[in-house]
Structures are given as structure tokens and as C-alpha cells.
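Exercise: predict the fold of this chain.
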Amino acid sequence: MGSGRDNTIVLIPAYNESRTIGDVVLGITKTGMRVLVIDDGSTDNTEQAALDNGAMVIGHSRNLGKGFSVRDGIRHVLEKNDFEWIIMMDGDGQHHPEDIPVLMDATQAEETDIVIGNRMLRTETMPFLRYWTNRFMSRVISGICALHIPDTQCGYRLIRVSALKRMKLTSKKFDIESEMLIRAAASSMKIISVPIQTIYGGETSMIKPMRDTIRFCALILKYCFNLDGLRRSEKADGGRTSDPPRDQRS
């Protein structure tokens, strides 16, 4: 079955996004879709802004990283067992809720496990460093996956819940997005890309170029020469998303 409003939930990891998270959540909830925000130890009003606009919120007592937040949100959805699809998007306003139907329509057109947004067809407003970083990382990850994925670093994606059950995700930071694609490819999952719009404003990037480049290189070294081993491991383990620590505010 393809993705629809009744069987899909939107998962948004957020850290100090009080300026934008309310509008992002409202743009989704007014369509009738449900939203889960993982507030990753924010020191501003992110949690309340999300709640005020109709989101469910999981709150971390300290900042654990995007990977932890994504895994925590996935764990929560799997425990509830109410949804067949998860849409992942950022809370900084870069991802437009109007593109949600674009992702969902792709699952009606063909059988797929992951639909990932592609920002690289319209790059006029994309910051210079981000453009070249995205191109480089996408080429490397595509090579590992043996599949052309034009924008592997795009956090706007739609994923089948049954596919997530088969992934043993372990990343703690921004490399979660690359790990997800590598593990999906190792399990022979179907990945497709669709064009999306991206809004670049005055947001502050949470990515630290030097630190996250080192982390990306470590991820590549981990998987580049061992995709066959990863395939065997995924098959033996049956996936199983690795649970993050339950560091949540009551």
C-alpha cells in the first residue's frame, strides 16, 4: 500500500528551532497529518512551539545529536505500530510541507521503500560550500550503494516502516542519513529520488564542516570495503534498529 495521510507520520528532529518549528508543524497538521517532534535538548522554546501547533513531542534532557533523535523517533513509531510510513524532515524551515504529496505520490506510482528528496536540480540559492559538499558526498555514497542517488544528504525523505524495522541504525549525528541509505542498499531495498524545493534563509546550520567531514570519512571507511559483510550482517540480525538511550524528559 502506498503512503497516505492516515498511515503516515512526520518525524522532525529539532534543536533550538523555536523561530521556525511552529510554522513547520502548522503547515503539516493543518492537512490532517500527525507530527512527532524530537526536541533534542533545546534551550529555547522549541518544545512549546511544537506543542502549540499540534505536534506530539519527545523531549531529551540534553543534546544527543540528530542520529540519536531520529532513532528515538523511529523507536517510538515502531512501538506504537500505528503507521506504515515515516516522513523525515528538518525543523528549520528549509523543507516545505507542500512537497509532502510529491513524496507520497511516488509510492503510488511504483513499489518502493525509500523516497528521498533531490535538491540538486535547483541549486541557484544553495550556499556554495553546501553545493559542493552535497555533490561530493552523494557521489561517494552512490558508489558504495551501487545506485545513483543525486542528493544523499537530503533529510527530507519518506521511508516504509517495515524497511526501518530491518535496519540496525547506530549513527549518533548527521551521518544517520548516509547510514540509512547504505543499509537500505545492503538489504536490496528500492530507493528513488524526487525533485523538491528548498528554502535557504537565515537558519544556522548545525553541521560542523571539519568534525562532520571526519565523521563522514569514518563512515565511508567502515562500509566502503565491507558492503558484502554488511549484507550478511543485516540478513543475520534481521535488521533491528539499535535503540538509543531513553534520555527523555517526563
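Check your answer against the key: Residues 5-237 form a domain with the Spore Coat Polysaccharide Biosynthesis Protein SpsA; Chain A fold (CATH 3.90.550.10).
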